[in-house]
Write a structure and sequence with these properties.
The complex is a heterodimer. A six-stranded mixed β-sheet of chain A has the order 6-7-8-3-9-10. The longest helix of chain A is centred in the middle third of the chain and has 18 residues, at 193-210. In chain A, a hairpin with a 2-residue loop joins strand 19 (489-494) and strand 20 (497-503). Chain A folds into two domains: 4-109 and 164-261, Rossmann fold; 279-509, P-loop containing nucleotide triphosphate hydrolases (Rossmann fold), CATH 3.40.50. Chain A is α/β, with parallel strands linked by helices. Chain B is mainly alpha-helical. Chain B has one domain: MetI-like (MetI-like fold). Helix content of chain B is 68%, strand content 0%. Chain B has helices at residues 17-34, 36-39, 70-106, 108-123, 126-136, 141-168, 171-179, 183-219, 231-238, 250-274. In chain B, helix 8 (183-219) packs antiparallel against helix 10. Chain B is elongated, with a radius of gyration of 22 Å. The chains are: A alpha/beta, B mainly alpha.
């Protein structure tokens, strides 16, 4: 083929891994993966964490992250095998023919340099343009990516623009030297859902208008559906399936792809509110910094026994602060928390041990929510000893029962958190919360850090446990798809205020207020062409601009 | 899912060469300190020859400024120096880390008071502070150890407070607080195990600083008092000989250096072995 830009053949990448307590060994990260990319096309690489998608994505730059070795195959870019290039040859290629857009723009920019200096750097280094030309080109690209104030934004420092803008500036940085290929490595994953849609649209326009080819790496099938022409599904370093976007979304052949496509389909029957809520938050106002920065304003919600209240909002909406106010970590300025008909002390230190037991919490990052020096047995066993005085064999027996309940098995009792996968860690955290036999569990973004299929397993487990243990959940999330699958009632929060609250069917039925509409319309769907429709039909601009 | 009960920290089969050397010499110093009276060829204070005799079969390292056997005095000096430095380090670590952890966990006025007191102590140069105190108080072993331990504990306090403040902000500590755990559990079961790695490496470093500090004090005549032997004091006794080409003062100085290096090699190795908080391999 004359216009083949990138041709990866039988790529094999290995690394030395250091499992805890075992001798180092060699692991295969990418195994026999081949792909071709033509000029002006976008190939989506999709897979869960550890699928090798970033590692493959970096190979056209001749780069392997720490300890990673390319041990087999060929990577042919513009007719040259870049694995045989000298260091100098690769240096000429990086930033000239291939550019890279990283996941976290905030961490990828040098905070001490102005944006423009960083954007034009590679064009100047490679002698593609002189400074005046490069800046002119950058400003044109700022306009194209609809950044506000394109003439002057380059004079700002990275901390002076928002996360969504920074991600777009990084795309400009990649486009500026007019490369043949851009690698997008999860460019929208760290953004709020309402910001993600704008960045996605900007990236898509820029790719189309400049005719650059792109590798788009993500774990989110709905996102990749919007930008890619073709999709390759990866798992454990091997290719599962490859096809056009339409083929993958509409006619997936492999079971794994089918599971990915249908991931959000959990059936959940909405329960009716009971007359006696288990926990009521009444007109709560809370603030940080001696009451100056108000993050919760006059919030009132009820949680009913063995039901789920989902609190939805983007970052900064005050949803986690609500959890902190309920648990007593941040005593509210005004308002009260009523638990089973009586008022809870606002300060954690004033609550009785039994009140503490009734209210448990599960965190977003399971690996920092468990002490890395404690075994699973200690982690789950401690609440048993602490609240119920169980010790020795009796305690071990109960820990094993709980391990069975979370579908892991008694064999895990002596393991350390570092020896568990992400999903298993979150399950252990669930077991720790359950061990206290609580009436209410606060789940703070518990599935956000997990791969879609794993997250799905956790949601199913939570629903099962709710049936078995009659526990209520306060489920904090930014992900509306999750909300639809598990909530009985929904509270939508925006900048510290409750903008919409009611049963699931009420909240999700039109007419919507502007913010709920924005939130609902921003959740990517696995439909080709969804992005354009969504952008066209929006009522308000997202806060990230 | 395969289940294996692998412990988190399993002793590595292979000890790196640096650590092996460090272990050998640290062991040598320690056993010398313990068995000093058995090993030393001559008693501590006995004059056995002429002043500053050269090395010979009878006196392997020669004799000192009074004609005492240098090797025997070095062996006894090892005992004194290591004993005082070890006890002072133990004191400074107990004091510094408990107060530092408590300050980080309790916060508020306690943290403020403790930290400002520590700042006050640290703002006075350690050696000068020690000289003033020792010239007023009776110069005996207990004073010396208490003084060294207290002065050194300010550094340990700073380190452990910083480390604990970091760990204190992590979700698993918050989970323990939400559970209603007391301060003792949070300090000793949640924070301490995770703070051990930086503390252990600091332990090696502080022990060596204690040796150097003691040697400096003795060199100035305020540390270990004669007839007891210690390395710093021996450098002082024999320093005049250097002008005449007598190496007696250099021997204890070299031993101080050797101990410093070997203890640090061991501390580094321990640090690497225990730094697998997240299943990593530390930095070694």
């Amino acid at each position: 083929m004359a216009d083949t830009l990138l041709d990866i053949r039988n790529l094999r990448i290995e690394a030395t891994v250091y499992p805890p307590g075992e001798p180092p060994r060699t692991a295969t990260i990418v195994d026999d993966v081949s792909l071709t990319l033509e000029k002006g096309r976008v190939l989506g690489l999709i897979g869960e964490s550890g699928a090798g998608k970033s590692t493959i994505g970096l190979s056209p730059m001749g780069y392997g992250r720490g300890g990673v070795r390319i041990t087999g195959g060929e990577v042919i870019l513009n007719g040259r095998n870049i694995l045989q290039q000298s260091k100098n040859g690769i240096r000429k290629l990086r930033g000239r023919e291939v550019c890279y857009v990283a996941q976290s723009a905030a961490a990828a920019f040098n905070p001490a340099q102005r944006l423009m200096d960083q954007v034009v750097e590679s064009s100047l280094k490679h002698g593609v343009a002189n400074r005046a030309e490069a800046e002119k080109r950058a400003i044109a690209l700022f306009k194209k990516l609809s950044l506000p104030n394109p003439e002057n934004i380059g004079r700002r420092y990275p901390h002076q623009v928002s996360g969504g803008q920074l991600q777009r500036v990084m795309t400009v940085m990649a486009l500026c030297p007019e490369p043949d290929l851009i690698i997008f490595d999860e460019p929208t994953t760290a953004l709020d859902v309402t910001t993600q849609i704008d960045v996605l649209a900007a990236i898509k326009d820029a790719i189309r208008d400049t005719g650059v080819a792109a590798l788009y790496i993500t774990h989110d099938l709905a996102v990749v559906t919007q930008v890619a022409d073709d999709i390759m599904v990866l798992r454990h370093g091997k290719m599962v399936e490859k096809g056009t976007t339409f083929e993958i979304i509409k006619q997936p052949k492999q079971p794994y792809t089918q599971a990915l496509v249908s991931v959000h389909h959990i059936e959940h029957e909405e329960k009716q509110p009971t007359p006696k809520p288990i926990l009521s938050v009444k007109k709560v106002t809370a603030a940080y910094g001696n009451g100056i920065i108000k993050v919760l304003k006059d919030v009132t919600v009820d949680i009913h026994p063995s039901q789920t209240l989902a609190v939805v909002g983007e970052s900064g909406s005050g949803k986690s602060t609500l959890a902190r106010a309920i648990t007593g970590l941040l005593p509210p300025q005004q308002g009260e928390i009523i638990f089973e008909g009586r008022k809870l002390s606002s300060r954690l230190a004033d609550r009785s041990k039994d009140d503490l037991r009734q209210l448990q919490m599960i965190y977003q990052m399971a690996d920092v929510a468990m002490n890395p020096r404690h075994t699973v047995g200690t982690i789950i066993g401690r609440p048993l000893t602490f609240y119920f005085g169980l010790r020795g064999a009796e305690r071990d027996k109960r820990v094993k029962e709980l391990l069975e309940e979370i579908e892991m098995g008694a064999g895990f009792i002596h393991r350390y958190p570092a020896e568990l996968s992400g999903g298993q860690k979150q399950r252990v955290c669930i077991a720790r919360a359950l061990a206290a036999k609580p009436k209410l569990i606060i789940c703070d973004e518990v599935t956000s850090a997990l791969d879609p299929l794993v997250a799905n397993g956790i949601l199913k487990l939570l629903l099962n446990l709710q049936k078995m243990e009659q526990v209520a959940y306060l489920f904090i999330t930014h992900d509306l798809a999750t909300v639809k699958s598990i909530a009985d009632s929904i509270a939508v929060m925006y900048r510290g205020e409750l903008v919409r609250y009611g049963s699931k069917s009420q909240v999700l039925t039109p007419p919507f207020d502007d913010y709920t509409d924005l939130l609902l319309s921003s959740v990517p769907e696995m439909e080709i062409g969804w992005l354009e429709t969504a952008i066209a039909g929006r009522k308000m601009a997202s806060a990230g601009n | 899912m395969s289940v294996s009960a692998a412990p988190l920290v399993k002793a590595r089969r292979r000890i790196p060469i640096g650590a092996a050397i460090g272990l050998f010499f640290t062991g040598l110093f320690l056993s010398t300190a313990i068995f000093a009276p058995l090993i030393a060829p001559h008693p501590l204070g006995e004059i056995v020859g002429d002043v500053w005799m050269p090395m010979s079969a009878k006196f392997p390292l020669g004799t000192d400024n009074l004609g005492r056997d240098l090797l025997s005095r070095m062996i006894y000096g090892t005992r004194t120096t290591i004993f005082i430095a070890a006890v002072a380090t133990a004191l400074s670590f107990t004091l510094g880390s408990i107060l530092g952890f408590t300050a980080a966990v309790v916060g508020g006025w306690f943290d403020m008071t403790m930290s400002r007191c520590v700042d006050l102590l640290m703002s006075i140069p350690t050696l000068i502070f020690a000289l003033v105190v020792l010239s007023v108080l009776p110069s005996n072993l207990v004073t010396l150890i208490l003084l060294m331990g207290t002065l050194d504990s300010t550094r340990v306090y700073r380190l452990s407070r910083a480390v604990a403040a970091d760990i204190n902000a992590m979700d698993f500590v918050e989970a323990a607080k939400l559970r209603g755990e007391g301060r003792a559990w949070i300090i000793f079961r949640e924070i301490l195990p995770n703070a051990l790695s930086p503390l252990v490496s600091e332990l090696g470093l502080r022990f060596i600083f204690a040796v150097l500090f003691l040697s400096a004090l003795s060199f100035l005549g305020l540390g270990v008092q004669p007839p007891q032997a210690d390395w710093g004091g021996m450098v002082k006794d024999n320093k005049d000989g250097i002008v005449f080409g007598i190496s007696a003062a250099l021997m204890p100085a070299a031993v101080i250096g050797a101990l410093a290096i070997s203890v640090n090699l061991v501390a580094d190795w321990i640090l690497n072995r225990t730094t697998d908080l997240k299943g990593g391999r530390g930095n070694g």
